[in-house]
Design goal:
This protein is 26% helix and 25% strand. The protein is of the alpha+beta class and 306 residues long. It has a 7-stranded mixed barrel with strand order 1-2-10-13-12-11-9. The protein has a two-stranded antiparallel ribbon with strand order 3-4.
Length: 306
């Protein structure tokens, strides 16, 4: 059972839905500690007070805002919880928008919103069904952990999910990172579309979507525990950054995708390279030119005397 991390309500016009919040995801990656390599002694981060010159416990630590170099304003958790904002106690829906109008870069961690008690069951279901039928998502504001945030509410199966969102000014412009202008042929674009067709899936189930990084780490740990040589990474067939023939690379990629999915995979054929057709020489124009030249020659001759 996931831990409850926040309790409040969803504010939907005049409708209030009491809810509790739990994380919708969990971490399965391998975690490392820091060690002193000489003797493998554990290296820890100690919380130290600079003024009293001593280590302090977690219960002695609080938040503060540095106003000047000499003055710090202490802020308690109670003061943060009691901020004069409606979003401190509720997730306030401010708009409904189509999902494809939301930039995925703005979407962050996901949380399940669970109805709190029987009284919340009916308004919770009402909001969930309205979101599902409208094919829209709700944009809301809420305040957690000392700051106000934007959130996106959507339906997943029978639950309402809240995604943390970034404010518009928190997303950087990619303008400085764009490549220089290049030209692409229609054949190259069609080849990329054919490759996309060959790699299209109906869902994200299968061995391609397993965490192979964690599996590789486990193999290394197991090998070192048994004093064996850890497995080595196979050398890539082509070096990164190597200039390749795009059409040749696309053709080979489609063939590999077909082989991995079976010969009867439903893919479009790659476009054949177009060759310029030779234009036939217009004989009519040549005939006319010959006739004009002959006429000039004839008109230039003097008549013979009898």
């Amino acid at each position: 059972m996931p831990r409850n991390i926040w309790s409040g309500a969803i504010s939907f016009g005049l409708v209030t839905v009491p809810i509790s919040v739990a994380s919708a995801t969990e971490e399965h990656s391998i975690r490392f500690h820091q060690y002193h390599l000489e003797d493998m002694g554990r290296v820890r981060v100690r919380k130290y007070c600079e003024i009293e010159d001593r280590e302090v416990d977690q219960g002695e630590i609080g938040k503060g805002y540095q106003l000047t170099k000499e003055q710090v304003i202490p802020i308690s958790d109670e003061e943060l919880r009691d901020l004069p904002l409606p979003t401190v106690k509720a997730i306030e829906i401010v708009a409904f928008v189509p999902l494809d109008s939301v930039d995925p870069l703005k979407i962050g961690e996901g949380y399940y919103l669970a109805p709190s008690g029987q009284v919340a069951a009916k308004p919770y279901k009402l909001l969930r069904m309205a979101l599902a039928r409208s094919s829209k998502v709700a944009v809301a504001k809420y305040a957690w952990s000392g700051r106000e945030r934007l959130g996106l509410l959507r339906v997943r199966e029978d639950a309402i999910v809240l995604h943390a969102m970034r404010w518009p000014d928190e997303v950087r412009s990619p303008e400085e990172l764009l490549p220089p202008p290049v030209e692409l042929s229609d054949d190259e674009v069609d080849g990329a579309l054919a490759l996309m067709d060959s790699m299209t899936r109906e869902d994200l189930e299968g061995e391609e979507f397993q965490d192979t990084y964690t599996e590789a780490l486990e193999q290394i740990i197991e090998a070192k525990r048994e004093h064996r040589e850890p497995p080595k990474l196979a050398e890539p067939e082509s070096k990164p950054g190597q200039v390749v023939d795009l059409m040749a690379a696309l053709t080979e990629s489609v063939e590999k995708a077909r082989a991995s999915r079976g010969e009867d995979a439903d893919v479009h054929e790659l476009p054949k390279k177009k060759t310029a057709k030779k234009q036939p020489v217009k004989k009519t124009a040549a005939k006319k030119t010959t006739k004009k030249a002959a006429a000039k020659k004839t008109s230039g001759r003097r008549p013979r005397s009898a």
